[in-house]
Automatic annotation (TrEMBL), chain A:
One of its GO terms (cellular component) is cytoplasmic exosome (RNase complex). Residues 84-179, 206-269 form the Exoribonuclease phosphorolytic domain. This is Ribosomal RNA-processing protein 43. The lineage of its organism: Eukaryota, Metazoa, Chordata, Craniata, Vertebrata. PANTHER family: EXOSOME COMPLEX COMPONENT RRP43, EXOSOME COMPLEX EXONUCLEASE RIBOSOMAL RNA PROCESSING PROTEIN. One of its GO terms (molecular function) is mRNA 3'-UTR AU-rich region binding.
UniProtKB/TrEMBL annotation, chain B:
Residues 28-147, 151-215 form the Exoribonuclease phosphorolytic domain. InterPro entries: ExoRNase_PH_dom1 (IPR001247), ExoRNase_PH_dom2 (IPR015847), ExoRNase_PH_dom2_sf (IPR036345), PNPase/RNase_PH_dom_sf (IPR027408), Ribosomal_Su5_D2-typ_SF (IPR020568), RNase_PH (IPR050080). This is Exosome complex component RRP46. Gene3D superfamilies: GHMP Kinase, N-terminal domain. It holds the Pfam family RNase_PH_C. It comes from Capra hircus (Goat).
Length: 289, 235
């Protein structure tokens, strides 16, 4: 992974606790922003965004780094041709990487089942919540479009991967800046203007809340790995700010009644408010370019 | 399939139902089930919902690889093969959903250190595929004689742009819908075992879909019961 020096970084740590009959949870969101102009080698991409989401405070829990490598934009066909059935849409390709670094449970090699399921989940969240319009990624209809690669790398796995992935994805997407691209009429080549960059238009802010279910009665919010392992089922609710649900992911496990489901929804609404507040504070406090 | 040596029961149950909170949009498509049609697996079933058809085969309880062995219960494995192409990440995700649903109902503790494998082959896909897979898996598990604490069924709901509910949507309806929700419900208390959704919807709509799915599941379970009764009354 190419490391570029952090010339300036601002981090804000905010503590929030969820009081509950369920469980006390501490969420810490730390977003590091990279200053993209000064101190850079030529040839480095400037269109990278990086965000690290750390949940569960001091004891390092799941941490994610999202990097979107658009480094190859200098080369010819580095963007991509839009899909034939949707000529004015770009691509967003998420990939969750669970390496042996984060937990003893994973081996190196092709992505295991958990990583694939998580990648699919993130792809579904992006698709369902319409967090960015794929049309925004189109440069020239039918010919050229941006391909956004979202690599979510787990640094430390202590359960509740899906929540952490969603936070990191959101934070990173807010940080992405795409340079302006024009197509030269004569040569039909794309010209990238690195001086002019614009942020992505983030339309909604989906926030995931996960629960561990124990024997149909007990629900624990934001489970650790140990709790997940002992749980008889899990449930993840992804909500956006209007209270609309983007995803209700319950991969099997013990049954839940409608009433319990309702409890989970209200908890998800509370969680969404807290996380949104956190994120707004962090982004406001980041140094402007 | 026709004229096979083993006993097979072909049930064509026309379960066109018209219940539901809203008008005629709430009918389930015609469904049919055929059991014990394959000779090698311990249990097999083919489930048809409208034009969607899935074939399931169950092997188990059988020997398990030492690396996958669980000391106090059976290891459940689900393999889902798409109709065309190689299985990808989406299939892996579905396999996990089906596997966790089966794990919740199968009494694995009765067969420790064994493996139960469910293999699903998509024969044709015309909407509500995941629900059809769940139904086929359940019927195949019953056919194999795997002990279960309850039966389960899959129901798909689609919400279109004006909020109209449609049960068991076709592929075209799924594409045009604003949201598609698939639920797996158990037969004892109609509790929600599994849910996976696509698209945006509100909390109230979710409850409405869940209620409609619970009503529809009654019909599916009745169909299971009838088809099994008919099969065992013959032999």
């Amino acid at each position: 992974m190419r490391e570029t020096t952090l010339t300036s970084s601002t981090s804000t740590l905010v503590h929030t606790t969820l009081p509950s009959t369920y469980q006390v949870v501490q969420s810490v969101l730390k977003v590091l922003k990279r200053n993209s102009s000064a101190g850079r080698r030529g040839g480095d991409t400037q269109a990278q965004a990086r965000a690290q989401a750390q949940i569960r405070g001091r004891k390092m829990a799941a941490g994610f780094k999202t990097v979107e490598p658009l480094e190859y934009y200098r080369r010819f066909l580095e963007f991509g041709a839009p899909p034939t059935d949707a000529p004015d849409k770009g691509y967003v390709v998420p990939n969750v990487d669970l390496s042996p670094l984060c937990s003893w449970r994973f081996r190196s090699g092709p992505p295991g089942e958990e990583a694939q399921v998580a990648s699919q989940f993130i792809a579904d969240v992006i698709e369902n919540s319409q967090i960015i319009q794929k049309e925004d990624l189109c440069i020239s209809s039918g010919k050229l479009a941006w391909v956004l690669y979202c690599d979510l790398i787990c640094l430390n796995h202590d359960g509740n991967i899906l929540d952490a992935c969603t936070f990191a994805l959101l934070a990173a997407l807010k940080n992405v800046q795409l340079p302006e691209v024009t197509i030269n009429e004569e040569t039909a080549l794309a010209e990238v203007n690195l001086k002019k960059k614009s942020y992505l238009n983030i339309r909604t802010h989906p926030v995931a809340t996960s629960f561990a279910v124990f024997d149909d009665t007990l629900l624990i919010v934001d489970p650790t790995e140990e709790e997940e392992h002992l749980a008889t089922g899990t449930l993840t609710v992804v909500m956006d700010e209007e209270g609309k649900l983007c995803c209700l992911h319950k991969p099997g496990g013990s049954g839940l009644t409608g009433a319990k489901l309702q409890d989970c929804m209200s908890r998800a609404v509370t969680r969404h408010k807290e996380v949104k507040k956190l994120m707004d504070e962090v982004f406001k406090s980041m140094k402007p370019k | 399939m026709e004229g096979a040596m083993q006993t097979e029961s072909k049930i064509r149950a026309d379960s066109r139902t018209e219940p539901g909170p809203r008008g005629p949009g709430c009918s389930l498509r015609h469904f049919a089930c055929e059991q014990n049609l394959l000779s090698r697996p311990d249990g097999s079933a083919s489930f048809l919902q409208g034009d969607t058809s899935v074939l399931a085969g169950v092997y188990g309880p059988a020997e398990v690889k030492i690396s996958k062995e669980i000391f106090n219960k059976a290891t459940l494995e689900v393999i889902l093969r798409p109709k065309t192409g190689l299985p990808g990440v989406a299939e892996k995700s579905r396999e996990r959903l089906i596997r966790n649903t089966c794990e919740a109902v199968v009494l694995g503790a009765l067969h420790p250190r064994t493996s139960i494998t469910v293999v699903l082959q998509v024969v044709s896909d015309a909407g509500s595929l995941l629900a059809c897979c769940l139904n086929a898996a359940c019927m195949a598990l019953v056919d194999a004689g795997v002990p279960m604490r309850a039966l389960f069924c899959g129901v798909t709901c689609a919400l279109d742009s004006d909020g109209t509910l449609m049960l068991d949507p076709t592929a075209k309806q799924e594409k045009e819908a604003r949201a598609v929700l698939t639920f797996a419900l158990d037969s004892v208390e109609r509790k929600l075992l599994m849910s996976t959704t696509k698209g945006l919807y509100s909390d109230a709509e979710l409850q409405q879909c869940l209620a409609a799915a619970q009503t529809a599941s009654t019909h599916v379970f009745r169909f299971y019961r009838e088809s099994l009764q008919r099969r065992y009354s013959k032999s």
